[in-house]
Amino acid sequence: MFASESDKRLEAFGESISFDHRLYHQDVRASIAHARMLARQSLITQEEFQQIEHGLLEIEREIEQGKMPFRAELEDIHMHIESALIQRLGDVGRKLHTARSRNDQVNTDFRLWIRDALDHTDGLLKELQKAFLSRCEADFDVILPAYTHLQRAQPVLAPHYWLCYVEKFQRDRLRLADCRRRVNVCGLGAAACAGTTLPIDREQTALELGFEEVARNSLDVSSDRDFALESAFVLALVAGHLSGWAEEWILWSTVEYNFLKLPHQFCTGSSIMPQKVNPDTLELTRGKSARVIGNLQTLLVLVKGLPLAYNRDLQEDKPPLFDSFETVNACLELAIPIVEQAHLQRQAIANRLDQGYLDATTLMEHLIVRGIPQRTAHHLVGTLVGMAQAAGTRLADLTDEQLKSADDRLDGSLRDVLGVEKAVKAYRSYGSSHPDQVRFQINRWREQLQ
Ligand code: ARG
Question: How large is the greatest C-alpha to C-alpha distance in the chain, in angstroms?
Fold first, then answer.
């Protein structure tokens, strides 16, 4: 039908084997399931199925051993495996593609690959959660300043900080799990776009491949990449969480903060400044999130305005998603030991807890309990903070006279609630940093993550 051979430049332009070779295992699995179904439906014989299965497993082994040369003229992994099979089996190999198109084949392979990848990333996220949780006991009595607007706000226990990240990554894991449900739908049998006239059994292939559902609409599923976009989104959010954490710990490891010493095996030195210990791993974690976020954008733009059903544009869906998984996994693998091994500078933190009036809000709430309206209490404590700032002291250092000068109702008994230790113990609300609340949450996570 073609009047001429294709231009040589199209080969290099159109190949996807350089990246979709990653799908070889999924392609073999899906082809075996498809062939088994063809045999059950008497579209091929049982003997032919056995030859095909045997051939495919051999080809898989060859690929694993690096014995299959990848060639641009065979375009993609699907053609490589099929032509290797035909080379072995001749006409029997030519039957594998019965009732199938590369359109539903690539969709199926990609879903199988993403399903495994989601599970792997979920495992890494769980390890990272455990790393944060593992610090909670040893750091239990450390009080840290919590910040809003990067200004000192209120005191919290260090494990309250650690569990904050456990919560964020838990939401990411729930998102992964939810996304997995939509990944786990079988499109095999949609063929090119409209289904097939041959008597296939889609339930059977779906079941063998562990899919939970069979796609209801052949046009939809063969054009659908929502599952890839959703995965890219969840990964972008994970990368964002990692980036925020990295930024925080970069700050915390500066001389200015001096909250943390990072494990040196994840830092680098400077060729000119001998004293430097640079937090490169954290900086790269922050930096690489840009690419992961960009990959989501790439995919969103890729599918925008594509007419139904399969279009070759969709071949471009794989590099961004492969990159997002690889990048996020690499960040997670390094985040885990950094979290486990970073050293809290307890003394340096404690020495400066009196700075920044972390107990001001507790004092205000104490005045509320004494019957002073919130707005008035806020104003009064603001006045006291101003006085203390002018004198260069803590709230607890204000004299009885100074307290009284702000308002008649204020006296020396207020000192009973001042200081960060008392402030932390004064919290009452669910989810607060009161030691009992934090203890409760630690135990809850222990049970959940074991
Ligand atoms: N290499 C293609 C891809 O990855 C395979 C599907 C090609 N289908 C087609 N009708 N040309 O999307």
Answer: 101
Q: Give me ligand 1 centre to Cα 101, in Å.
A: 9
Q: In this structure, what CATH number is given to the domain that contains residue 256?
A: 1.20.200.10
User: How far is Cα 372 from Cα 354, in angstroms, rounded to an integer?
Assistant: 26
- Residue 439 inside a domain? The answer is no
CB of 16 within 6 A of ligand 1: the answer is: yes
* Protein residue whose Cα sits closest to atom 3 of ligand 1: 315
CATH number, domain of 60, equals: 1.10.275.10
Residue type, 420: V
Cβ(314) – ligand 1 distance below 6 Å: yes
Of 64, 98, 132, which residue is a domain's last? Answer: 98
- AA identity, residue 167: E
Per DSSP, the residues of 211-260 read: -SEE-S-HHHHHH--HHHHHHHHHHHHHHHHHHHHHHHHHHHTSTTT--E
Decide: 307 and 268 in contact? Cβ < 8 Å.
no
Residue-wise pLDDT for 329-388, tens only, equals: 999 999 999 999 999 999 999 999 999 999 999 999 999 999 999 999 999 999 999 999
Residue 365 Cβ inside 6 Å of ligand 1? The answer reads no
Let me know if 83 is a catalytic residue: no
Ligand 1: which residue has its CA nearest to atom 12?
315
Shared-domain flag, residues 21 and 143: no
Instruction: Find the DSSP H helices in 304-345.
Output: 318-341
| C-alpha to C-alpha distance for 344 and 348, rounded to whole angstroms | 9
How close is the Cα of 184 to the center of ligand 1, in Å? Answer: 21
- DSSP string computed for 75-93: -SHHHHHHHHHHHHHGGGG
Task: Tell whether ligand 1 has an atom less than 6 A from the beta carbon of residue 76.
Answer: yes
Q: Which domain holds residue 31?
A: 9-98
> For 286-327, how does the pLDDT look when each residue is reduced to its tens digit (9 = 90+)?
999 999 999 999 999 999 999 999 999 999 999 999 999 999
DSSP code at position 5: P
pLDDT band at 6 (very low <50, low <70, confident <90, very high): confident
Assess whether 324 carries a catalytic annotation: no
Number of domains, the chain: 3
Whether the CB of 75 sits within 6 Å of ligand 1: yes
Question: Which residue out of 4, 42, 149, 271 is catalytically annotated?
Answer: 149
Instruction: Please tell me if the CB atom of residue 74 comes closer than 6 angstroms to any atom of ligand 1.
Output: no
| Residue 156 and residue 110 in one domain | yes
Q: Using the mean position of ligand 1's atoms as its centre, give its distance from the Cα of residue 316 in Å.
A: 10
**Residue with tokens 């456990």, as numbered in its chain:** 166
Residue nearest to atom 1 of ligand 1 (CA): 76
Which among 18, 54, 120, 270 is annotated as catalytic?
270
- Residue 279 vs residues 162, 195, 252, 332: alpha-carbon distances, Å: 20, 55, 11, 16
